[in-house]
Amino acid sequence: MFTLIFVVLAIKVVKGLLEDKKLVTLVDADLEGNYVNEGVEKLIQIALLCTQAAPLDRPAMSEVVRMVEGEGLANRWEEWQQRRLSLQEFSHTHIQYPNLYLPISYSYIPSNDHLSGPRD
Question: Which residue, 28, 37, 71, 94, could crosslink 66 as a Cys pair with Cβ 3.0–4.6 Å?
Answer without folding.
Answer: 71
